[in-house]
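Hi everyone,

Forwarding the result from last night's run.
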Amino acid sequence: MSESTAIECLKIFCRTIVKVYGDEYLRKPNESDTTRLLAAAEERGFPGMMGSLDCMHWCWKNCPVADQGQYSGKEKEPTVVLEAVASYDLWIWHAFFGLPGTLNDINILDQSPIFQQLQEGEGVSVSYKVNNNQYNLGYYLTDGIYPPYATLIQSISEPQGKKKKHFTKMQEAYRKDVERAFGVLQARYAIIRFPGRFWKHTDLSVIMLAVIILHNMTIEDEAGTEFDGDFNYHQTPRTQAAITSNGPMDTTFDQFLLRYQAIRDHRSHATLQQDLIDHLWTKFGSEEANSP
């Protein structure tokens, strides 16, 4: 088979994978998925956590010369960025690919559809308690570059005291779920481990989505095996959170604006972070205090 034929077969294969399996393996968490995610999060001491969020750069070797300035950021070579959310089992629940490498994680978040369903009042709603306080928005664990939104929880850069140090240790450990997912993606699929050699941006996009679909298929196939984590898939997950599914609804601009502001509320972020600090210390603090 000639090189050009092999490349064309690859493109057709990836487009077919996305078309046939995209709805299933690139879906947002449904009610059942959310129940399982929240049950695992509660066991870890982070009620309401929906996963961890981060970005990965894929080098674009054959980026057209006219676009190289736009796509060349701190890596000093053209890259395309994948923003993703991964859960404890490394399933990727959100994939936003295609923005140039000159953008940082905050710029990408501003253009990302990650909060689109929440803003429109659709998808799955959650309600849970942390430290006896009620919250109605799930959240993601992130690194320090992300803004202090009610839906994003970072570690503390210079923690003071045992409680904050313990929180930072736990947050940084569980935030690595998405980094592990990126590592597994690149280890399993060499096509994204090495620089992309396609001329069209759309070809890179369909390849990345196909790889994520195949990755999620593998995660599903390995669920409950020795390759999976400690969570018991065969037991019905239990969570104290209230979960409801919301379909498309008519909404006014004022309602949309209220939800938009609630997602990005700094006060709610600070309150939730402090409640998580206290909750984690109550749940696991005795182990930390007794450790050498």
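The chain has one domain: 3-287.

Cheers,
N.
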